[in-house]
Amino acid sequence: xxxxxxxxxxxxxxxxxxxxxxxxxxxxxxxxxxxxxxxxxxxxxxxxxxxxxxxxxxxxxxxxxxxxxxxxxxxxxxxxxxxxxxxxxxxxxxxxxxxxxxxxxxxxxxxxxxxxxxxxxxxxxxxxxxxxxxxxxxxxxxxxxxxxxxxxxxxxxxxxxxxxxxxxxxxxxxxx
Length: 176
What we know:
Elements: H1 6-25, H2 50-53, H3 58-62, H4 70-73, E1 81-85, H5 91-100, E2 105-110, H6 113-126, E3 131-135, E4 150-153, H7 163-173
Parallel strand pairs: 1-2, 1-4, 2-3
């Protein structure tokens, strides 16, 4: 039986994702030797089509460690406020911000300083004015209740040791 606790798991996640951000910042990919076109995994390499990939800095694409593409599935409308749980290098925040337009807004929350720095740099490169990246944990989100219209996440909730808290926080922020 494992003696690993929630704090240990969170620290391992923070460390691994921080290392991935640093690899991208130094000109690599978030995973072993891949490029934006080759990807890490043949199953997840084409999650973002060429149009989407062309709308974000290459570093945002290279930093993506997700297993899906929530922006391909989410119905996002102009003027909406979107929150991405575990936003990493910012790809889904940047794509969401484009979809909600200048009257909308996209927030990203991540607990990893290096990923936040990368995401902010990607937002600046993209010229995105309607985005903000905040430091926080998805079990205790740093936004006021009732402020978002859409919550997305790309393979991050599974990393939490307290999924009921994550879902409760997301529900609390949802402005239904």
